[in-house]
Design brief:
The chain is mostly helical. It contains 8 helices and no strands. It comes from Paracoccus haematequi.
Amino acid sequence: MFDWITGFLDGGGAVAIAALMFLENVFPPIPSELIMPLAGFNAARGGTPLWLAILAGGLGSLAGAWFWYLAGRAFGAHRLRRLIARHGRWLTLTLSEFAAAEGWFRRHGRAVVFFGRFIPTVRTLISIPAGIERMPQGQFLLFTALGSFIWSGGLALAGYLLEDRYEAVEHWIDPLSTAVVLGIIALYVWRVIRWKPDA
């Protein structure tokens, strides 16, 4: 994996970084926790300059998040309510829970969108409710960009500073990312089992 990503980044430069980060947000094949430290590692070896790697990573991440925001906005709350009424168990949602979530997202949406950029899987999914709830597009892009550039920049800088010791970044971030993803899957299974329709 390391050799493939490094070769891809060497050959494609900033465009390759942006493409991988876009894909990571649309359908996560390779986590950003691996992409951006390697981009920083390559920058330290004389590859794509660090500032350009961070810019490309942030823009790719932002574009992927915007894709899901637009998808959620096109789908809309009305269609989602009909989907919940038919398939609530598999969505692990009832109509009353959705109504409560709508109110909560309206109150805390900006913070959720910003901090969601730092959590594996959540950073992909959080754009959908933002679109469904029609969070103002300017606000969504601003808070997503802030979170994306901080996250991408921090990972790239870590890879740049560690250089040949980049594995140290992966060793503490990768297990945490795996634990979060497994926790989300376990929570989903638990909610499917415990799901009950509205009375």
